[in-house]
Amino acid sequence: MKVNTRFVVGSLMIAVLSACSSSPTERRQAKQDFKYLETQPLKEWQQPTEAKPEFYTQYDIPKGDFSGGVGKEVDIRPPQQVLELIPGARIEEVKGEVTVWLVKEGDVDKLWQTMLTLIEQRNLSLLTQTDSELETDWLKWISEDEDNEFGARYKISRLSLNNRFGFQISLIDWQVDGKQTEVTQANKARYNILMTNLVTSAYDAQLREEARIRAEELVKLIPISMGQDRSGLPVIIARAPYNIFWERLGELLPMMGLEIEDRNRSQGTIKVKYKEPDDEFWQEIGTNPLSFEGSTYNLLLGDLGNRTSINVTDAGGKPVNEEILDSVVPVLAAIIDKSNNMPKVKTTEE
Predict the structure, then answer these.
(1) Domain with CATH 3.30.310.170 in the chain
(2) For the segment 308-331, what is each residue's pLDDT rounded down to a tens digit?
């Protein structure tokens, strides 16, 4: 038997009930003794001859053939739960099998591709593979809460039913310490869910990475133009949301010769001191110099939804004239373009 991949369960669990015990068995079992197993069987209640019994239905014990572990066989660990990482997904658990239902077929296509990429990255061997179903070779699950090393094989399927599109993971073979055996219902559910979370976590990580890339592109592409505020006064308009432009502007202003002395994000204010760059700088970016006449200015940023307005006042709080604002637009646009073309400097944290 060839085992291709080892999964450490502890790294996949998001919420784990920790115990102080060093024994895996004790971590799964209640700390109390099990003397209750020696309790004598219950006997039928004998009513006095003239007594009139009263029964309350809320205390009825359900009837049926129930089976399960008792004593040391009872696992006190919290049950695994499927992580709700996919927007709009509905989770269905039936007899230990997990199905993730999605509304759009394209979402299942993306999830399926994520799963194939995950299999490739972790060097998982496949015994069979089609466009809608595959079976894995044996993989190992190792957990500090277990006394044994478990092996499992999975069948992963794409489903389509009533305009719904699903992704199902089924544990089909089970090993304990290398020996194939029947899987308990508890372990079937537990390790199906762990495998599902492994796939959905990879999918979530992929979505986050795509969002990060889109955000970076959005930060780069910020058109700058002149506009008017609600009262008709001239303002500079940056076509980017306030929170994005605020962060970017803090990097751009020093490149323009505007040293930041103070700023307040909640109020949208930035106090700057202007020190005009040399002629070589203006030749490099290809614009005329700023028309600033003083050394200290205040920038006031306004949140316009998908845009940000920029007002400029002098040291006395008086709005600068339109000529000065006009001079800022091409300089700011050129600095944005220049910063986009600058090589990224890697830090030790990266």
Answers:
(1) 224-341
(2) 999 999 988 899 999 999 999 999
Q: Count Cβ atoms within 10 A of the Cβ of residue 67 and give its class: 0-12 exposed, 13-18 middle, 19 or more buried.
A: exposed
Report d(CA 257, CA 254) in Å as an integer.
5
User: Two tokens at 168?
Assistant: 């199902």
Distance of CA 319 to the CA centre of its chain: 44
**DSSP symbols for 197-233:** HHHHHHHHHHHHHHHHHHHHHHHH---EEEEE-TTS-
Quick: pLDDT tens for 112-131: 999 999 999 888 899 999 99
Classified as helix, coil or strand, 336 is: helix
Instruction: Enter the DSSP assignment of 132.
Output: S
CATH architecture for the domain at 90-215: 2-Layer Sandwich (3.30)
The span from the CA of 139 to the CA of 125, in Å, is: 9
Given the candidates 3.30.310.170, 3.40.50.300, 3.30.70.890, 3.40.50.720, the CATH classification of the domain at 224-341 is 3.30.310.170
pTM of the model: 0.56
> d(Cα 299, Cα 304) in Å, to the nearest integer?
16
Burial of 206 (0-12, 13-18, 19+ CB in 10 A): middle
pLDDT digits (tens, 9 = 90+) for 163-175: 889 989 999 999 9
Angle at 135 between CA 134 and CA 137, to 5 degrees: 140
- Give yes or no for a contact between 319 and 311, defined as CB atoms under 8 angstroms apart: yes
The tokens of 98 are what? Answer: 């997990």
Closest CA to 100 of 111, 109, 110, 89: 89
